[in-house]
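Field: COMPLEX_INPUT
Field: COMPONENT_COUNT = two
Field: RESIDUE_TOTAL = 366
Field: MODE = joint
Values follow.
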Amino acid sequence: MSDDRIEGYARGLFEIARAEGTLSTVEDELYRFARSFEGSDALRTALTDEQIPAAKRLAIVEDLVGGKASATSTQLISMVVGAGRGRDLPAIIDRLVARASSAQQLALAEVRTAVALSADQQTRLAAALSAATGKQLNLKCVVDPAVIGGVVATVGDTVIDGTVRARIDQLKSRL
Amino acid sequence: MNVLGLATIVRIASEEIVTDAQGHVTTHSAWLPETAEIIYGGLSSLLIFWALFKFGGPAIKKGMAGRTERIQKELDAAAADTAAAATEAAQIRQAKGDIDGERRRIMAEAEQQAAAVLTEGRSRLTAEVADLEARADAEIAAAGARVGDELRAEIARLSTAAVDHIVTGSLDAATHQELIEGFISRVGAAR
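Field: COMPLEX_OUTPUT
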């Protein structure tokens, strides 16, 4: 899809979420869905295969996120997938999150952990990262078993890696 | 006086002619003719000899001269042939000598070339052997290094897999929380 079209979809989703008053929740849920979408071949195939009827693809979305995310998030994902733009879903969502962060004068910070962070941990981590980077952050937490343990935080071009995976990779390089 | 005249005189002196009753005349000697026969016979012989000398002599002389000339020619031809043969023999001997010299020269040259080829071949073989040895050493070293690298990579892979397995299995909820809290503390302390 062209960059203009991605930007157009992102702007549309952003305006809908803001109009609904659920921008913060929606962008968080969509961000996590985008990461899941990127990490799962089966999900990617199911939502982008043109041979699968649109109704069936929408049913898959409903089954996956229906009970776990807000109605707005589910409807926005269904709208993109139903329009046959499922392949560009991560790019659209990333653009939406970037737009939402800009609107709040925040920098996007992605945090990956092997287990989910508690609300308290998220707050303290956001404060620590803000202090370390000197920026107000829009924290996005992603559960990624690939990190094995620990935390990796990405703020713009800065990566702070405290994962077990990184240490094992260092050990592998040394070996 | 020649022998014939002497014989005639002796004959005349010793002869005796006898006539028998029937008038038959017999010689007086059993082995010598009568004198008149000797005289006439001698004269006849002389005449014949003279005629032979007079008329046959030139022809005989001519024939003998021709024969002499022919023999001389044959002798000359034989001498010429002998000289030619000698010349040819000399040439052959010279040619033989030349051939021997050429053979010696060719043999010497061939030996020289063979020695040069041998020397060059030895040098080339020595260089090739050295090159092959160097290449083999390099290949052995490369193979050793390659095997070492592969072994190290395999050890690293197995070690990483083992570490993955052990670490993943040993990470419980408390350890996860400990790692997360440690990260938050370190990041917070890095301000």
